[in-house]
Structure formats: C-alpha cells, structure tokens
Specification:
The structure holds two protein chains of two kinds. Chain A is mainly α. Chain A is built from five helices and no strands. Chain A has a domain of about 80 residues. The two termini of chain B are about 35 Å apart. The chains are: A mainly alpha, B mainly alpha.
Amino acid sequence: MTDDKDHYIRALFDISPAYDDAPVFQQKVMMGLTLKSWLRQGLVVISGLIGGLYALTQFVRMPEWSLKGGGLYTGSLQMATRRTDATVEAGVEFIDIMARGLADSLFAVGGYVQWMQTPQFFWVSFALCSCILVLYLLNDAQERI
Amino acid sequence: MPQSPGHNSAQDQSDIDLIGRAVTGSHTAFGELVRRHSGALRTHLRRMGAQSSDADDIAQETFMAAFERLSEFRFEGPFIAWLKMIASRRYLKKLKAAQKYLFTDDATLFETPDEAPPPDMRLHDLDSALLQLKPIERVCVTLNFSAGLSHVDVAAETGLPLGTVKSHIKRGLDQLKSALTVPNSSSHPIASSQNGAAGSATPTFMDERR
C-alpha cells in the first residue's frame, strides 16, 4: 500500500506543467550560449594579438634610437630647399611639417617599443598575466559541475 | 510553411543522438534538448523552493554549464536527471551562499499555517501541497523524488546528517500523502513524456509569475 502511494507521488513529480514562455526561454538560453561563445572567441583573438605584438616588440631593434627623441629624420628637407623660390619653399615646408609629425609619432612608438623591452615591463605584464590566469582557474573551479 | 529537414531531424532524434551532435558543437541539437527538458528543469527548481525568476536563471545557467560540460555526461541515466543534479547543486550553493534560513534548526521559522488546505488542493495538486512543507523538507523530498537521489546522496548534497534527511523526507512525504488525495489503486497519473510536452490539462506557472 505504502509503496503504491510512494509510486503515485513519484509519478506526480514526473509531471511537469507546460510553460507559456517555453520558446522564449529556449531562445534566451541559445542567445546566452552564442554570446558566451563570441565573448570567448573575442578574448582569444585579443589575447593572441596582444601576445603577438608583445613577442614582436621583443625582436624589434631601432638603430641609433633614443628615448630623448631628436633630429634623426627632421630638418633634412629644409636644408635641401633653403634657396628655392617661395612657392616651392612653402610646399617643401608643408611636407617637412608632415614629415616632422610622422617622425615624432615614430619616436613615440620607438619610445614605447624600448619601454616594452625593459625588465620592468616584463615583470608588470607577467604579474598581470598570472593574475588573469589565477582568476580564470578560480572561475573554472566555481563553474565545475 | 514546410520546416527545414534539419529541424525535423532534430525533433525526431533521441536524446543520445542529440547529445552526440551537441558535443561536436551543434547548437541546433542542443536547442532541441533545451526545448525538451526546460519545462521539467524549471519545475524541479520551483518545487525545490526557488522563486520563478531565480528558478529560470538557474535553469538557464544549468543549460549553459551542461553545454560546456556535455562531454562529461556518461549516459549512466537520463539526461534530465543529470540536468536536475546540476541545477540542484547550483540552487543549494546559492542558498548556502545567501545564508538563507533553510539550514537552521529553529523550527519556529517554518511553522505552517494551522488552517486546513482549501478543498480544491486535495486534488492532485502537488505544487500546492509542496508549499505546505517546511523549506528543508521540500528540498529533501524534491531531491529524493524529482532528482532521483538516494537518501545518502541527499545528505551529501545538502550537508545534513543522514538521519535528519530521512526524517525530513518521511515527514514531508506523510504531509504530501495527507494533502493529496492519493488513490489506493494502482491508477498512477500519466507521467509527462520525455520531450516534456505536458497535456493541456496540466497546470501552468503563469499565474505564479503574474
């Protein structure tokens, strides 16, 4: 008798009601999955780019480069066109200004590249990567079934 | 409008076939598994005591976790049992993290109203009957009857002593039997099919959500 009643209640537990919003729920789950997948792939791509860039900077060497900046690429056009007529001079000066801007940018990039090759940068990035790895492992442990 | 062959084939396939396809990354196959089992999973969480929104959130998290760990499913039981286990663990973890009063020994917190249940509740309204149980009894009974866990497993999952779990289940079951009109014959209710499609006569949770 008791077994019958237990089976009856067990069978009641097996009945699940119909949900009006079942398709919406299904869509929500699938959208969540897609979003998570995109996020993960995006993170992989970004870390790949950053890692690749970092590795590249370790191999790049700028000859005669200094953090102070200076006139390695500037002023040559000015010297060459000092005695031409005013129109040509104006054009050359314009090009020279553009070249100066480009050279300054290159110096800035060079400065960053040099900085990225210093031991300080290595230890800062190493510590950051370790932190991210620890957080990832902690999150993974939390998500464990 | 005719449905695509892929859609039809997903609906015709068994859980095992769908899991096999989902493991290789098929979202269509997993979507069909979600369609089949979401109702049962959401109901299971509500029966454990989760509020509607919480239950849906945990059910969603469960499906997402299941998709990522699908390769760990060993086909040792029905897929829905595995899902219920994941969902139960997540719900219990949430309860423990929130330090809800579920696991306290203070019985006065769980006093149920003295008045008798309304006459219509004496029908086969399991969900209304479950509301009359203490939260901890509800959790233990649902884990035992809905998730199919043994008493030992329920004790392991909840962290309660085995004797306490047995007492909770016995008391809860006795209350359910008295609240429900349990027939003495073997006329068991028709269980929902594997795809979770319940008949139109089955109750819905829409009222609860409103």
